[in-house]
């Protein structure tokens, strides 16, 4: 069961990332697949696995040893994987929309979105910096100052 859940979750996420990176964004229904449908489906998987297995794992969040013990269970490990896949995909969809609005062309977005897929927070940082780098930089010069 954990191997099957892992494979299905991974495949669903890859479908979402493929849509996000390669499909046109002019269709709102298609945009909803990576932004809402797949992350919510992964959230259902996560919730079921956590509710059924969390207390049985014997781990917790109080120390690294407890976290290690928590993730020693394959079911909880798959839940953690689904958690990462869901949130990374949703963040990717949000940042893709923001980069679209900022005028970042799709060929420049693709590596940033791949960084979000592979490295989560690092990719988010790159997306924010990419978006911020396109904002016009304005200097505020006090009135009457000599320039």
Properties at a glance:
single chain, 147 residues, mainly alpha, 0% strand, globular
Characterise this structure:
This protein has 147 residues and is mainly alpha-helical. It has one domain. The chain is 78% helix and 0% strand. It contains six helices and no strands. The protein has helices at residues 2-22, 28-57, 64-70, 74-102, 106-119, 121-133. Helix 4 (74-102) packs antiparallel against helix 5 and helix 4 (74-102) runs parallel beside helix 6. The chain is globular.
Fold topology:
Elements: H1 2-22, H2 28-57, H3 64-70, H4 74-102, H5 106-119, H6 121-133
Helix pairs in contact: 1-2, 1-4, 1-5, 2-4, 4-5, 4-6, 5-6
What percent of residues adopt helix (DSSP H or I)? over 70%
Give the beta-strand count: 0
Backbone CA Rg: 20 Å
- List the domain count as a whole number: 1
| Helix/strand order | HHHHHH
Mean pLDDT: 91
The percent range for strand residues is under 5%
Distance, first to last CA: 70 Å
Total helices: the number is 6
Low-confidence runs of at least 5 consecutive residues: 137-141
**What does the largest sheet look like?**
none
Summarize the structure.
This protein has 147 residues and is mainly α.
């Amino acid at each position: 069961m954990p191997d099957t859940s892992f494979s299905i979750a991974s495949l669903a996420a890859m479908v979402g990332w493929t849509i996000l990176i390669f499909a046109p964004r002019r269709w709102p229904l298609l945009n909803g697949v990576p932004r809402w449908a797949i992350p919510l489906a992964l959230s259902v998987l996560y919730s079921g696995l956590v509710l059924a297995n969390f207390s049985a794992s014997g781990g917790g969040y109080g120390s690294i040893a407890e976290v290690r013990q928590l993730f020693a269970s394959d079911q909880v490990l798959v839940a953690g994987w689904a958690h990462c896949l869901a949130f990374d995909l949703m963040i990717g969809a949000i940042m893709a929309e923001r980069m679209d609005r900022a005028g970042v062309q799709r060929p420049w977005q693709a590596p940033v979105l791949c960084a979000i897929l592979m490295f989560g927070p690092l990719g988010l940082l790159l997306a924010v910096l990419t978006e911020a780098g396109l904002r016009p930089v304005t200097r505020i010069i006090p009135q009457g100052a000599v320039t």
